[in-house]
């Protein structure tokens, strides 16, 4: 019997018992739908988290001041500014693979322009900072070396701040007041969107490090040359681990920390955080695959069950087919194709449902849904294989029937 | 050479209760064009004989050839091929597939003969013509009377132009009038040259054949020519 005809005949048999066939497929449908949806949603979520974390900048480590003990009381991280400009310069100079070390100070402030004002985060930065964060100026210009050195009162606005203070107008060369200090706007940053923690990264203004330290933020940075944190950017991902070790030694030495004294700073590898997030997403995918395998297994057993019932019910049909000239292998392939058709249709319905669910969830959550063609092909192929595997035993039982016995059966 | 030739045909079943000799040393020739009625009470071996002649089973010992082919040497695929090409079965319970219409049921043996769709359709229509059922081609078995169902089954048996039509109690599930029509159809097909072997326990049915073979305890006890009771043509054609 030709293949196409076998499939047509299998479809006929499946359609004779539509409800039963649908119920039989259900295990496969649910399994495949779950896999497709979860893989797509997972990929979408991972993609989002990934791009948010990477939006900090690639191959980045951050040095923050650590806990300090003052008169017996341990103060929290960042309570004291143990880091300085010189630390940053030393790291840039002495640690291999460091391409930028950007010290900065930060604080919260009110920005005023004419009649409008806006509360935002202010960063005092140096020349390396935008390089480290891989962030560009969209209009106007960035700071030049002289402005940084002198601590000029010039400002670059984040996109959100520019929009809230100036609307559609061009803010370049306008003046904004921060703590009554008039800053001239020289640029507006390109929008960067939300951070991994849901913060609007564009709700920010930038001033030269010294201007921020002296005129605006002040309080914690009383000691001359002290900074809040330092972004350190490496040339390659492989440089980060050894670089952090070197930086730790260097800072301990510079801060005169000896023996088993605790560090007064901490260094975090941001790329590693991103990789950890990716790795946990991969673990999740593996878990999903395991769940999928179990549900396909259950679906396959359902198919085997119903095929055994079908073989018993259709014993006379099998006997008749054998009598009119079907060979055992014709019977085998007939039932095998029937089981495979059943499971493949189930798989395709599952793909449809899964894709639908993925788009639905993605549109609710507001991230891109990534239905991968590979996942679809693997799911359909896998369900076909489930049909062949679990259909084989019933089909073989059908093929081994004795025609005389089979014809006599009621 | 005879169409069917059996020499010392023997079939022994090894059952839990012991060995049962169902057929014991049967020598029988059936010529091309014969209309043979095989009769006997249940347990006489006539069903075993039919299964062997129909290539559904193989003898324990002895020889059987059908149209020159030595059957006991064939494997399962060889038997299937022979059943497909040389034998048309007609059963008491018709054995039509309920989800297929009459035409598709008649096409079934040709699927296993590897005939393409177009030719299958043509030949199936022709076979339904021969049994007088062209107007019922698209009906399913459930929509047909018993007599019509048996006609569809006969069309299915004829469609591969077999040399032997093998009928097992073909009128057992029909009322006497319909039974007469079906027997008339067999007589008509026989006149056109088809060899018919009809297995029955009913003496009335047996009288329609030109030759009568009686089985008892696995042996042939009677083999005689007789003048068949003819069904009038008009009635058969109805």
UniProtKB/TrEMBL annotation, chain A:
**Superkingdom, natural source:** Bacteria
Question: Where is the ABC3 transporter permease C-terminal domain positioned along the sequence?
Answer: 290-403
Q: Determine if Transmembrane is one of this entry's keywords.
A: yes
One matching Pfam family: MacB_PCD
GO molecular function: any one?
transmembrane transporter activity
Mind telling me which InterPro entries this protein's record contains? ABC3_permease_C (IPR003838), MacB_PCD (IPR025857), Macrolide_Exporter_MacB (IPR050250)
Q: Where is the MacB-like periplasmic core domain?
A: 21-242
GO cellular component annotations of the record:
plasma membrane
| Locations listed in the record | Cell membrane
Give the way it sits in the membrane: Multi-pass membrane protein
Transmembrane residue ranges: 21-45, 286-311, 335-361, 373-393
Q: Which UniProt keywords apply?
A: Cell membrane, Membrane, Transmembrane, Transmembrane helix
- Family listed: Belongs to the ABC-4 integral membrane protein family.
What this protein is called in its record is FtsX-like permease family protein
Q: Which organism is it from?
A: Microvirga brassicacearum
TrEMBL record, chain B:
The cross-references to PROSITE patterns, in alphabetical order and at most eight, read: ABC_TRANSPORTER_1, ABC_TRANSPORTER_2
MF terms from GO for this chain are: ATP binding; ATP hydrolysis activity; transmembrane transporter activity
Q: Give a single Pfam family match.
A: ABC_tran
Q: Which GO terms describe its cellular component?
A: membrane protein complex; plasma membrane
Q: Which InterPro entries match?
A: AAA+_ATPase, ABC_transporter-like_ATP-bd, ABC_transporter-like_CS, ABC_transpr_LolD-like, MacB-like_ATP-bd, P-loop_NTPase
Q: Report the residue ranges that make up the ABC transporter domain in this protein.
A: 4-237
Q: Which Gene3D superfamilies does the UniProt entry name for this protein? A: P-loop containing nucleotide triphosphate hydrolases (3.40.50.300)
What CDD domains does the record tag this protein with? ABC_MJ0796_LolCDE_FtsE
Which terms are listed as keywords in the entry?
ATP-binding, Cell inner membrane, Cell membrane, Membrane, Nucleotide-binding, Translocase, Transport
The record's similarity note reads: Belongs to the ABC transporter superfamily. Macrolide exporter (TC 3.A.1.122) family.
Q: What is this protein called?
A: ABC transporter ATP-binding protein
């Amino acid at each position: 019997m030709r293949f196409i005809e076998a499939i047509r005949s299998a479809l006929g048999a499946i359609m004779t018992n539509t409800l039963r066939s649908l119920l039989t497929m259900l295990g496969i449908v649910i399994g495949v739908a779950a896999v497709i949806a979860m893989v797509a949603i997972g990929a979408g979520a991972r993609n989002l988290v990934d791009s948010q974390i990477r939006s900090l900048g690639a191959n980045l480590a951050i040095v923050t001041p650590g806990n300090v003990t003052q008169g017996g009381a341990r103060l929290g991280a960042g309570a004291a500014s143990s880091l300085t400009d010189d630390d940053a310069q030393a790291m840039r100079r002495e640690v291999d693979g460091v391409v930028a070390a950007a010290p900065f100070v930060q604080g919260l402030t009110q920005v005023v322009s004419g009649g409008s004002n806006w509360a935002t985060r202010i960063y005092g930065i140096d020349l390396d900072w935008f390089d480290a964060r891989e962030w560009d100026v969209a209009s106007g210009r960035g700071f030049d070396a002289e402005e940084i050195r002198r601590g000029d009162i010039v400002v670059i606005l984040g996109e959100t701040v520019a929009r809230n203070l100036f609307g559609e107008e061009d803010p370049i060369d306008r003046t904004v007041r921060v703590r009554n200090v008039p800053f001239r706007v020289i640029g507006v940053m390109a929008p960067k969107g939300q951070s991994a923690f849901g913060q609007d990264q564009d709700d920010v203004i930038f001033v030269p490090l010294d201007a921020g330290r002296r005129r605006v933020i002040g309080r914690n940075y009383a000691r001359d040359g002290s900074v809040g944190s330092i972004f350190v950017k490496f040339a390659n991902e492989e440089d980060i681990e050894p670089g952090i070790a070197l930086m730790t030694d260097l800072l301990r030495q510079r801060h005169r920390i000896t023996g088993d004294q605790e560090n007064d700073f901490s260094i975090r590898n941001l790329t590693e955080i991103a990789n950890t997030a990716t790795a946990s997403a991969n673990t999740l995918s593996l878990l999903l695959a395991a769940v999928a395998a179990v549900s396909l297994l259950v679906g396959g057993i359902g198919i085997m069950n119903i095929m055994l019932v079908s073989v018993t019910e259709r014993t006379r049909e099998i006997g008749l087919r054998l009598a009119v000239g079907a060979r055992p292998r014709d019977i085998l392939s007939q039932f095998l194709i029937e089981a495979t058709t059943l499971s493949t249709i189930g798989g395709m319905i599952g793909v449809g449902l899964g894709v639908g669910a993925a788009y639905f969830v993605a549109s609710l959550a507001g991230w891109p849904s990534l239905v991968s063609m590979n996942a679809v092909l693997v799911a359909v192929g896998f369900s076909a294989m489930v049909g062949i595997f679990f259909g084989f035993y019933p089909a073989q039982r059908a093929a081994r029937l004795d025609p005389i016995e089979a014809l006599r059966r009621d | 050479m005879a169409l069917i030739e059996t020499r010392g045909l023997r079939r022994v079943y090894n059952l839990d209760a012991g060995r049962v000799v169902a057929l014991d040393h049967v020598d029988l020739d059936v010529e091309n064009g014969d209309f043979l009625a095989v009769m006997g009470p249940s347990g006489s071996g006539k069903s075993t004989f039919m299964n062997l002649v129909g290539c559904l089973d193989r003898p324990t010992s002895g020889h059987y050839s059908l149209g020159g082919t030595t059957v006991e040497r064939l494997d399962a695929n060889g038997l299937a091929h022979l059943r497909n090409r040389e034998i048309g079965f007609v059963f008491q319970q018709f054995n039509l597939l309920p989800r297929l219409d009459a035409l598709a049921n008649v096409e079934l043996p040709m699927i296993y003969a590897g005939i393409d769709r177009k030719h299958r359709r043509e030949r199936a229509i022709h076979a339904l013509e021969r049994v007088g059922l062209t107007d019922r081609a698209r009906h399913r078995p459930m929509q047909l009377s018993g007599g019509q169902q048996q006609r569809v089954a006969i069309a299915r048996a004829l469609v591969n132009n077999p040399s032997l039509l093998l009928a097992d109690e073909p009128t057992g599930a029909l009322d006497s009038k319909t039974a007469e029509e079906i027997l008339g159809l067999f007589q008509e097909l026989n006149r056109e040259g088809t060899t018919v072997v009809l297995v029955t326990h009913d003496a009335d049915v047996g009288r329609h054949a030109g030759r009568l073979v009686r089985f008892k305890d696995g042996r042939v006890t009677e083999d005689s020519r007789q003048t068949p009771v003819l069904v009038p043509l008009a009635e058969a054609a109805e």
